[in-house]
Specification:
The chain is α/β, with parallel strands linked by helices. It has helices spanning 41-49, 81-95, 109-119, 141-156, 186-198, 209-223, 225-229, 248-257, 278-299, and strands spanning 2-5, 11-17, 26-30, 53-57, 102-107, 127-131, 235-240, 261-266. Helix content is 39%, strand content 15%.
């Protein structure tokens, strides 16, 4: 484990796996909301076998990185740009020690951040891949507009650090597998619960008004057609057909705006494609391996 000084001196936890046999470069893994390094150990192993060195981080406000508010499980962020600044610090440190070229693999919120990083030319990734990137929240259109107004008003009145209605502290022992919205794999669902049970301080709970407000703003940034056209590297996007958190249709719309993007839908997958059942994960790895072979050969 390594600690990186993020925006404002915030300690950001990272983990690094140099690949002594790897000549393919370094894959930076950008997790989603509420996730943490330990959740990606299986993915790290799969990337190592493919010849990549790997870096994973805990975003501020989750895992063991800096928490923004006193309540330890509130998902809170003052500004989404802090995530981008933190990642720049992570990249600057580890890119000095690991072999390029540099690639990105991101999920959900991490996908939104990664789109911002490449679209704003902050990080020199050569290829990026994403699962269910946060390009639009899955809610009825009429409620989406209402939610934006309510959330903006709450933040304006100083209630940004309060949970949104229905959100609360996360307890992995409370969430039944049958009620979960992220995976149809009972084994991986149980594994995630076991990790948090063993290390409860890594858990993050529901979103605050401030987090949702910043998410809405960042979604609007990546949704602009002119923003997508600024991304001039190969991009792989996989949407989850049964996603209840991110609207997979918006994944396709954002991909259309990016000249070098390819989009595929994984039928039967819930939000966390990489934490899904083996047949669904294999769909991802098949697309990933084919895509990386084609675009890296072209780059060479």
């Amino acid at each position: 484990m390594r600690w990186v000084e993020g925006k404002g001196g915030a300690p950001i936890r990272t983990a690094v796996w140099p690949n002594p046999d790897g000549g393919r470069g370094t894959m930076f893994v950008l997790p989603g909301k509420s996730e943490y390094i330990e959740k990606y150990f299986e993915v790290v192993g799969e990337l190592l076998t493919r010849g990549f060195s790997v870096v994973v981080l805990d975003w501020r406000g989750q895992g063991l990185s800096h928490r923004e508010v006193d309540h330890p499980t509130k998902a809170f962020i003052g500004r989404f740009e802090d995530f981008l600044d933190d990642f720049e610090a992570v990249f600057d440190l580890h890119s000095k020690e690991l072999q390029g070229p540099w690639y990105g693999l991101a999920h959900s919120m991490g996908g939104n951040i990664m789109l911002r990083l490449v679209g704003e030319h902050r990080v020199p990734f050569e290829v990026i891949a994403m699962t269910a990137p946060m390009t639009g929240l899955n809610m009825p259109p009429f409620w989406g507009k209402t939610a934006e107004v309510v959330v903006q008003s709450a933040v304006g009145f100083g209630a940004g650090d309060l949970f949104i209605p229905g959100a609360s502290s996360y307890d992995p022992l409370v969430e039944d597998f049958e009620d979960n919205s992220v995976t149809s794999d009972p084994v991986r669902h149980a594994r995630t619960a076991a990790i948090v049970r063993a290390l409860p301080e890594i858990a993050q709970g529901g979103a605050t008004y401030a987090w949702i407000h910043e998410a809405f703003k960042s979604i609007k940034v990546v949704a602009r057609p002119e923003f997508g056209r600024r991304i001039r590297i190969p991009v792989l996007i996989l949407g989850a057909a049964d996603d209840r958190l991110v609207d997979p249709v918006t994944n396709r719309y954002v991909g259309v705006n990016i000249p070098g993007a390819e989009f595929y839908m994984v039928d039967g997958a819930k939000h966390e494609i990489l934490m899904e059942r083996d047949p669904l994960r294999e769909i991802f790895w098949t697309y990933f391996d084919d895509f990386m072979a084609r675009v890296t050969d072209q780059a060479a």
